[in-house]
Structure formats: C-alpha cells, structure tokens
Design brief:
- The complex is a heterotrimer of chains A (582), B (103) and C (159).
- Chain A has 2 domains: 528 residues, no CATH class; 44 residues, no CATH class.
- In chain A, helix 1 packs antiparallel against helix 2.
- Chain A is built from 26 helices and 2 strands.
- Chain A is 73% helix and 2% strand.
- The longest helix of chain A has 32 residues.
- By secondary structure, chain A is mainly α.
- Chain B has a single domain, classed as Helix Hairpins, CATH 1.10.287.3510.
- Chain C contains 6 helices and no strands.
- In chain C, helix 1 runs antiparallel to helix 2 and helix 5 crosses helix 6.
- The chains are: A mainly alpha (582), B mainly alpha (103), C mainly alpha (159).
- Chains in contact: A-B, A-C, B-C.
C-alpha cells in the first residue's frame, strides 16, 4: 500500500501535467478543472502516506550495478515535505484558477506546475543520490520555465535565466558529492552513510559536506547566492507562493537536515551552516525593510526565514528547523497568495501606489494580517512557536553573539512586516483605483491556509513523532508531545524575544519620532537597496565570462589546417602522458 | 648496415605518416590534402602487414588491409567529388576559402 | 639492402608528391609511391595485398586523381601556409619521435617464418562481416559520387 501511495504522489501530478498539456489551450476551463483535480488527488495521496511512514525501503527498482537500485523510502522527513508540496501545491493551483483566468498558454503553465509538484515529491522521498540529483534538476527546470512564463517580458526571462544559472552552479556541488559517495562507498544509497558517517574517509566526507552546503545555499537563496530569489518574483504569484516560498527553496533546508547526522562532525561544517544562516537572515531582513515592491519584500522575507532554518540546523536543532519550515511554508504561502490577490486587483506591485486597501479588501486584509503576525512571531500563531524553538536551539548550542544577531533579526522582521501591512492596507489611498476583493477560487485557497496558520502548531507533538526515531533513526529527534514544545518555548529567552519583537512593532508605529535614527542609518539603507553589492558582483561575473569567451574566439578559426594542428597537439599530449606518465 | 626488416618497416610507417600529417598541416590545396591522406593510408597498410607478420597471422592482417584499401579508395572518390563541387561553388580549391566563421 | 633502398624510394616519392607545385605531377609521384609500397608488402610476405594495392593504388586512384584534376583545374595557389612550415615540421618531428619511442623497441624482434596461406578461407568465413562491409562501402561510395557529381551537372546545365 505504501508503495502505491508513494509512487502515486509522483505519478499523479506527472500524468495530470501531461493530460493538461494534451487537452490544448482551446479548452481553458477544462484545463483549469483537470489541473485542480489532479493536484487535489496528489494532495490526498500525500496525506494518505503519513500513516505508512517508516524507515524501511518502500520501492526498490534494481537497475544493475552501474546506477545502483532506485530506492524510495517513506520516512518522516520525506513524507512531511511531500505533504507540504502536494497540499500547498493544490491550494496554489486552486488559486491559479482565478489568478490566471483569461491568460493564454495555460497548458504550459499547469503542465509545468504539476510536473514540479511530482518532482518535489520524488526529491524528498528517494534515497538514491542520483535520483536526488535528477529530481533536483527537474525542479530547477520547472522553476526556470515558470519564472519566464511570460516569455515576451525581458525582465521575466532574465530573472528565469539568473535563477537557473545560480541554482545550477549549486547543483555542481550536489553532483560532486553524489559521485564521491558512489566512488568511495560503491553505492548510491545515502541512508548507509547517514547511519554510519565513518563509511567515508574524513577528507572526502568534508568535500561532500561543503559541496552539499554550496548546493543547498544556492537552491535556498542563502548568502552568497541570494540574488536570484528577488528577481524570480517576475513569476506569476501562485508560482512565487508555491515554488519560491513553500517548496523548492525548502529543498536546500531538506538536504541539510537529511545529511546532518553524517556531516555534523566534519570540522567547521556546522559553524559554516550557522554563519550562512545568520548572515543571510540579517542581510535579507534589512533589504526587506527598504524595498518598495510588495513581492520583493516577501521574497527577502523568505530568504531571511530560510536563514533562520539554516541557523537552527547549524546549531543542531533539526526539529526546530523542520518545525519552522512547516510553519513558514504555510504562512508564507498565505502571504504570497494574499499579495497575489492584491496585485491582481490593483494591477501594480509597488507598495507606494497602494494604501488604504483594507476597506475594499477585508478578507485579504484579514488573512494577510494573520500571515504577517505569524511571520513576526506573535504568540499563538504557528510562526511564534517555531521561531522561538529556533532561537532556543541557537541559545543552547550556538555562540551567544549569533543569538543576539538573530534576535535583532527577529525585531527587524516584525518591523518590516508591520511596514508592509501598513503601506498596503492602511493609511491614505495613494492612487485612485477601484479594487475588488478576492475571487471565489482565491478565497478557497486563502481560508484553509489562514486556518492552518492559526492552528498548525497544535500538531507539534504528532510532527515530532513523525520525525522521531521510528522513521529517522539517526537524527535524534526526541520530541513527541505538544506539551514538551510548549514547555520549552515558555521561558525567559522567549520573553526577551517578545520584547524585541514588540520594539520592532513600536518602531514603525512611532516612526515619526524616530526620524533622527532613520536618517543616521540611511547609509545602510542605500547599501541594502543596492543589495549590498551582490548585484554588482553578478554583473562583474557576467562581464568577465563574456570577455573570456570573446578572447577565446580566436581559437575557433574554421580553418582545416588549424583544426588538424589541434588534433596533433592533442595526440602529442596523449602520447607524452602514456610514455612519461607511467 | 644491418637494420632488421621490422625496423625498416617502422621507419617507413613513421615516415609516411609524418609526411602525410605535415602536408595536412601546411598545404592549402584541397586535392593535395587528399593525396596526403592517401600517403598516410599507405603507411597504415604497411603497419597492418608488419603486425600480422610479427604475430604470424597473415590472413587476418590481409583481410583488414583489404578493408582499409577499399575504404580509403572510397574516401578518395568522395573527397575528390567534394573538391570538384567546392571548385564549382567557390571558384578555388583553397582551404581558407571554406571557412564561414566570420565576426 | 633492398629493403633500405625501397624505404628510401618510398620516402622520396612521398616527399616529392607533396613538394611539387603541379597537381598532375603530384599524382604521378603518388602512383610511384604506391608501386614501391606494393613491392615492400610483397617482400613482407603479403602477396595478395600487394597485388591489390598495386592495382588500386597505382592504377585506380591515379586515374581518379587525373580525372578530378582535369575537371577541377590545375592552378598554382599562393603558398604561405596557415601553420608555418617550421612549426609544422617541429610538431611532426616530436610526434614521430614519441610514436617511434613506443614502436621501434617493441618491433625489433626476429621475424617468424611465413605461414601457409589461408587467406581465402579466412576471408570468406572468419571475416565474412568485413566482406559485407566492403560491399556496403563500395555501394555507398558509388552513390555518393553520383549524387555529388550529378547535382553539379544539372546545375551547370540549368545555368
């Protein structure tokens, strides 16, 4: 039964994508319906897989000795991420019915979305390193195709190519690690390595660990690869909600969490993960504070929260990082879909042209505020519990100065969240636009997410049991009840964190009085608006590559004699190696 | 001088191959290049027969050499037909006239 | 002694084939080279191949070249080569030296006696696939030549 369900979570979306594409763009409403149906079926399959999670290999396709066996394991980490991908995926598809109403080329859109959902399920459920790389690349492909969905818009195409290039550079690290695993241990199955890190000699394990860190940092838009995610906001908003907030960018966090038991003793690795998370969290929070594009604020906020998850992993709190991933997927998808509703009705992404929309869009305002409160970490929303667990893990196992930086980041998070909500929904309307509230399909997508934001923390105990020793024997996750979580969170550090968050909120409320401080920090603000020089680095790299290519053009002459000269030169090198290389 | 036959044969092989390769590098006339290919193939033929003689298996060596002769003749035929066409289309038999990679 | 003379002859013919400026003379030198190589093959103990090489190399290919040169024209080109001559000689010398390093020591052994000729039985049984391949090659080559030359005729007729 588990075998069928697991294969269904991958097969249903893929078949659905194919069918939607074959139906053709002339039958748009049929395409919408088919896409929603298959997405919901996939969500159902994902949820039905939960009771079957165990650490046993569920699907085993032997393929000879070259590639190893293609194995799939339905353990807690994989099942939980599959549920996130398929359920939030189905909600995003439902939202797309209204958002993409009237757009053409829906076949391409839905096919890519469904293809992506299936690939994400496959990525987290497989235990063969080659398949991980394969699904990783498929998600990158779908992300590129969907970012540049409006392929007549040069900004969208540029954003898609940038995302593709940066995540593929990270993919090299993943491939290197996968090949090292195969070369040293002779098998592509990583569960053996996770159970026993001593299988690989220390030097190769170190290379593998840092290669995976690079791959995860590139995929999750962490420092120094964070520049692609804000530019990916050219994608249609349901895509931003699904791929760039709730699922694909979590692949990096998943990779780190999955391989933590294998890499935690590699010297410097946990420190590197800690620092990457911390720097990203702070930097992205500051950039969110000075941005005026609604989706960019949310994008930077995603990057910042992913930094929190990396920080938790570096500090050893795997449960905290995964719990925060769970909460973050829900409230960030909620925020993005709410933003999508706003953008769809107002027609612009610039927050300076919004304002006072709360009266005309009461439902969207309500759900956006719920999501914003969860992001800021206000008590009893799910974001509060998970963020506090992250901070507790940091306090227990990480240097104290990193904890303070993360605390400051939490305050800035509250500040930019409040700023965003205020600029969009309150205050004076900046432009005369007649806006309408969200359409019915949008409401169907938004309301369950808002409900989940309010209540998903109640599942903390079952969540802990899902990730516990039964399904993940090497990860050491011992939490098994909600009471433990509540007990851990309600303590003095949490009180301090709440005070910092309150300070952040207050800073916006009394921003009139704080103009002196904000003028003093204007320099940092300007640097943040230029993304702290990272865009300049990107441009420099592009220019360098192009000029190197132009310079090397001289060797491609097209002349027969020159090419033969090249062949003979190669022959001489080969002969020399044979004779003198021994 | 008492150079044994295999060494003489190897010198022939190296010499023919070297002269053919030199022509491929330094000559611009297409038909001369095809002549150079023919010279190289003769070197290869001698190599095959030498190898067969040293192994004591002349039959296999001669069969392979036969295939090489036929293949090389076909190459010459097709190459010359191409050269004739190039002459018709570009007006000369120069290798530097064949490239279209321009700025 | 004869072998060394034949070697000298082969190398001389090859060099002259490349050096002359006129293409027809070059084809004649190639024919001479083929004949000497055929003689050497005969002395090495491969009479059948020697005969084939003589007829094909010194006969058929030479006729082909003369035919093609007559169609294509025999003009002399400006000859500053793409790769300068000294560089080409240097590269060739280095690679010949390296290959010789690998080849000559291994080859300097006593030549075993000439076995009984089993060529025809080997050809048609053990290497029947090779014979099939030869047939296909000839067919393909004939087709290619017809295709390449026929187009030209049609074009020149139309224009």
């Amino acid at each position: 039964m588990a075998t069928t369900l697991l294969l269904l979570t991958i097969a249903i979306p893929w078949v659905g994508g194919l069918i939607v594409w074959l139906v053709g763009n002339k039958h748009a409403s049929l395409q919408h319906r088919i896409a929603v149906a298959f997405a919901l079926l996939a969500g159902g399959a994902g949820v039905a897989l939960i009771p079957y999670s165990s650490s046993q290999i569920v699907v085993n396709l032997p393929l000879g000795s070259v590639f190893g066996d293609f194995t799939f394991v339905a353990d807690g980490l994989g099942v939980f991420l599959t549920v996130v991908a398929t359920v939030i995926g189905s909600l995003a598809v439902i939202f797309s019915v209204d958002y993409m109403h009237g757009e053409d080329q829906l076949g391409r859109y839905y096919a890519m979305v469904l293809f992506f959902i299936g690939a994400m399920s496959g990525l987290v459920l497989t235990s063969n390193m080659l398949l991980v790389f394969f699904f990783w690349e498929i998600t990158a492909l779908c992300s590129y195709a969907l970012i540049s969905f409006h392929n007549d818009d040069p900004k969208a195409v540029a954003g898609g190519i940038k995302a593709l290039i940066i995540t593929q550079i990270g993919g090299v690290g993943l491939l290197a690690g996968a090949l090292l695993l195969f070369a040293v241990t002779g098998s592509m199955d990583f569960n053996a390595l996770i159970a026993n890190p001593a299988l690989m000699p220390a030097k190769w394990l170190g290379i593998m660990a840092f290669g995976f860190l690079i791959a995860a940092a590139a995929k999750s838009a962490q420092f120094p690869f964070q520049t692609w995610l804000p530019d990916a906001m050219e994608a249609p908003t349901p895509i931003s909600a699904l791929i760039h907030a709730a699922t694909m960018v979590n692949a990096g966090v998943y990779l780190m969490a999955r391989f933590y038991p294998a890499f935690k003793d590699v010297p410097g690795w946990t420190t590197a993960v800690l620092l990457v998370g911390m720097i990203t969290a702070l930097m992205a929070a500051i950039m969110a504070l000075v941005s005026n594009d609604l989706k960019r604020v949310l994008a930077y906020s995603t990057v910042s929260q992913l930094g929190y998850m990396f920080y938790a992993i570096g500090a050893g709190g795997i449960y905290a990082s995964q719990f925060h991933l769970f909460s973050h997927s829900i409230f960030k998808a909620l925020l993005f879909l709410g933003a999508g509703a706003v953008i769809h009705s107002v027609g612009t992404r610039d927050m300076r042209q919004m304002g006072g929309l709360g009266k005309q869009m009461p439902l969207v305002r309500a759900v956006f505020i719920i999501g914003g409160l969860a992001l800021a970490g206000i008590p009893i929303l799910n974001g509060f519990w998970s963020k506090e667990m992250v901070l507790e893990a940091g306090l227990a196992h990480a240097p104290i100065w990193t904890y303070i930086v993360m605390l400051v980041g939490a305050g800035i998070t509250a500040l930019y969240t409040f700023r965003c909500i205020w600029m969009v929904f309150y205050g004076q309307p900046q432009s005369e636009k007649h806006v309408h509230d969200a359409g019915p399909a949008m409401k169907v997508a938004l309301i369950p997410l808002a409900f989940a934001t309010l209540t998903s923390w109640l599942l903390a105990g079952s969540f802990g049991k899902l990730l516990g020793p039964e399904t993940l024997p090497s990860h050491g996750i011992e939490i098994s009840s909600l009471g433990e979580v509540i007990h851990e969170v309600l303590s003095l550090p949490t009180l301090i964190a709440l005070i910092v968050i309150a300070l952040g909120l207050a800073a916006w409320w009394w921003r009139g009085k704080l103009t002196g401080l904000s003028n003093a920090l204007k320099g940092i603000g300007k640097a943040a608006a230029d993304s702290f020089g990272f865009e300049a680095i990107n441009r420099g790299i592009v220019k360098g590559t192009q000029s190197a290519a132009e310079a090397l053009r001289a060797t491609q002459t097209g002349l027969l004699n020159w090419n033969i000269f090249g062949i003979i030169a190669g022959l001489i090198i080969v002969l020399a190696v044979v004779i003198f290389g021994g | 001088m008492n150079i044994s036959i295999p060494v003489v044969a190897s010198l022939i092989i190296l010499g023919l191959l070297g002269i053919g390769l030199y022509a491929l590098l330094a000559v611009r006339n297409l038909i001369k290049i095809i002549i150079a290919l023919q010279i190289m193939v003769k070197g290869v033929l001698v190599a095959f027969i030498l190898a067969g003689r040293l192994q004591g298996d002349m039959a296999t060596a001669q069969s392979m050499a036969l295939v090489v002769i036929v293949a090389d003749t076909i190459v010459a035929v097709v190459g010359l037909a191409l050269a004739v066409q190039i002459r018709r289309h570009t007006g000369k038999l120069d290798t530097t006239a064949l490239t279209t990679l321009r700025r | 002694m004869w072998h060394i003379l034949i070697m000298a002859g082969i190398l001389l013919c090859a060099i002259m084939a490349i050096r002359t400026k006129r293409l027809l003379v070059s084809a004649i030198w190639l024919a001479g080279c083929s004949a000497l190589v055929a003689l050497f093959l005969f002395l090495l103990g491969a009479p059948e191949i020697a005969v084939v090489e003589l007829s094909v190399g010194a006969g058929l290919v030479t006729v082909l070249f003369v035919f093609a040169i007559n169609i294509a024209g025999d003009e002399v080109l400006p000859s500053h080569p793409v790769i300068s001559r000294p560089l080409a000689w240097a590269v060739i010398a280095v690679s010949a030296l390296l290959v010789g390093w690998l080849l000559v020591p291994g080859v300097n052994v006593a030549v075993p006696g000439l076995p009984e000729s089993q060529l025809s039985s080997t050809l048609w049984q053990a290497r029947s696939l090779d014979m099939f391949l030869i047939g296909i090659l000839i067919f393909a080559g004939a087709l290619a030549m017809l295709g390449l030359l026929a187009d030209g005729k049609k074009e020149s007729v139309e224009s």
